[in-house]
Every structure is written in C-alpha cells, then in structure tokens.
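Students often ask why we bother predicting the structure of a whole assembly rather than each chain alone. The short answer is interfaces. A chain on its own may look different once its partners are present, and contacts between molecules only exist in the joint model. In this exercise we take two input lines together and write out one structure for the complete complex. Read the inputs first and try to guess which parts will touch.
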Amino acid sequence: MKVRNIFFVLLMIFVVLVISIPTLLGAFGTIPPEHLRSIAKQYLFLSYNPYNKSLWSASPEVVAAIVWDYRGLDTLYETMVFYTAIIGALMLYSEILGSKDVIGGKGLSFIVKRGTAIVLLAILAVGISTVLHGMITPGGGFQGGAIMAVAPIVALIVFSRTFLDKSKLTYAHFISIRSLALLGVILAPLIPLISNAFIFQNQAKSLPIFQSPIFFTYPSTIIDVPMGGLIAILNIFEGIAVFSAFALAFMILLYSEELSRKPLEGEDIGY
Amino acid sequence: MFLVATISLYINIAVSMYGVIAKPNLVKKFIALTIVQDSINLMVIMMGYKLWREVLIQPPILLNWNPTPEALREFVNKAVDPLPQALVLTAIVIGLAVNIFLVSAILHLYRHFNTVNMDEISKIKREMIVGETA
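Now the answer. The structure tokens for the assembled complex follow.
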C-alpha cells in the first residue's frame, strides 16, 4: 500500500469524524428529529395567514414563499450567479456563438421525429404547469424551467442542428428572451414600492395612508385560487430565464467537433 | 436506523471527496463532485426532517383556501421544516449552473489536450514550458 493511499484513507476517516461527532453531540438537534425549530413554525404559521397580512406571503406553498418572499433578495443574487455561470460557459465558445454548423445533419428517422414532436409538447406542458402552479404546489420557476429545457435538447438531437439553423429561432433570440426575463425579475418587485407592498415582499404596509384602494398590490387571489401575489409573476419570469439559459448552454455544447475546435486555433503556444 | 442512515450519508460525502481529490480523470472528478453536491443536499434536507407519527393521518397541506386559525395550527404541527428545502432548491439550481460551466470547461480542455487526465495534462504543460525555455 502506497503512502498516498494511506493518507487518503486517513483523510476519509477524518472527514467522517469531523461531521459525525457534532451530529452525535446534537448539532442538528435530536436524532431522529421530533420537533420543528421555532423559526420553521413561524414560517409555516405566517406564510398563508390571512389574519395577519402585515407578515404573510400570500402563498400557501411555504417553500415558494421563502424562496421568493421572505428571502427574495437571496434568490435574486442566486439568479445572478446562475446568469454569470452560463455567461462563463458561453464565453469559452464566444467565437462560434450563433454560427451555422458545418455538418449538414438530417436528424433521426421519420417515426422518431413524429413521436418526439408529440412528446415535446407534453414536456413543455408539464414544465409550464409546474411554473404556473409554483405558488400552490411544489414547483416553481427553476423546476419548471429545468423541465422545459429538456425539450430543446431532445429537439436538437432528434431534428438535427440543420433544422435549428434553418428556423427563425437564433442564438440572439434566446439571449434577448433571457435578458428580458431577467429584467422582469428585477423590475417586477420594484412596482409595488410606490404602492402597498415592499420590494420582493407581499406583506402589506401598516401605514393607514396605504389602506386606500388606489394603492394596489399584486393580486393574492384570482377568483378563489391563491396567486401568491408577486410570487406567481417572478416564477413565470424565472421559468423563462432558466429555460433559455439551459437551451443556450446545450446549443453550445452540442456543436459539431469540427466547429468546436475553432476557438482553440492559435492557442498552441502557451497554455 | 435514522442514525445509521445519517452516518452512511457522511461516509458517502467522504468517499466522493476522495474521488474529487484523488482521481486524475476530470470526468470522474466531476461525477464525484455531483455526488458530493447531492449528498450534502440530502444532509440538509435530513436536518429539516421531522419524524412521522402514526397519529398524523393527513398529509401536511392546507385543505381550505380560507383557513381557520385552528387549521393553520394543525398545519404547523404536521409540516416539516421548509427552510432547508428552500435552501436546497437554491443550491440545486446554482449547482446545475456551475455543473454546466464545469462540463464546458472540461470539454474545452479535452479538445485542447486530447485527454481529460490531469496528470497527462500537467506533463504536456511541463514539456511545453521546457521546450519554450530551451
């Protein structure tokens, strides 16, 4: 056994001990846990509490309420990290972005194409419904966007790249859709600022002046369905942003090998 | 049993950290990294879990869109901690974006060096530097 392997075994034992000892000493509370922390109880109690509208989030789905309401600014910065990571991936291939592929593919057989065309609609429908129900059931912008993003990847493989190159939908369109959606995420929470809500929050302002009906908020219900106020709107924008981001990333990753080597030309000297 | 599951999760984290550090192949490193991410997410979810009791027959949902205060209190007693779930949701999305960036970086390296083995890449780089300085 080499010294290196012994070192790694010791390192693994060390890592396990470092996490297990605090756990056994009660860092996470009793194991198995039997009670909720009081902050969790507060979130659960106040999230959809119509009797205390100065602290509610208008969404019966508490996870969505935390993500977009109680910790809305966190999620804004998370969206920025997401934006930057995809921009980083695109920058690696900035020279060939938007160019037509050199290999003229025909795609898979007719049967596969027809079958996929039907399945694609189903995938998009599931994704859209996940986005739109984000405030009342588990789901939301990220999850729905990630589900929808499967559609362009499957389409790229089944219908071939030539189909995409011939279509009107270009790289620039995806970039603009994505930027507009992110602009929506930033601008939508700013509108109620002059009205009866806070940035990224559905909580009502307590000053009496804001109680008059001219100071609107985003609707907490439509007919009798909870809409989560701002949460529904942010979910839609986020869904579009995530969908276009993944579509872009896979459009770049699935370029043919011949074209993908182009950005590397001239890099032979000095890594 | 819950304790055994928790400790096994920690062993999972340790083994995948070994994979990230010790394996020279970048794709294997990447796979180990995704396992670390998922194990840590699972650990965070377990922190917010609450033991299920036989008396709780109803699932933790509000049955009425105009809930009474009693219904809200009952909901609080049935539900698990939502905060770790929200944080894991955030972590998964950021993880996904970072994974896409890493995949494209690995692909870029492969196209450049024709290998994804870190040892070979550093060997090629060393030879290159020696060749340039000679």
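Check your guess against this: Residues 60-264 of chain A form one domain.
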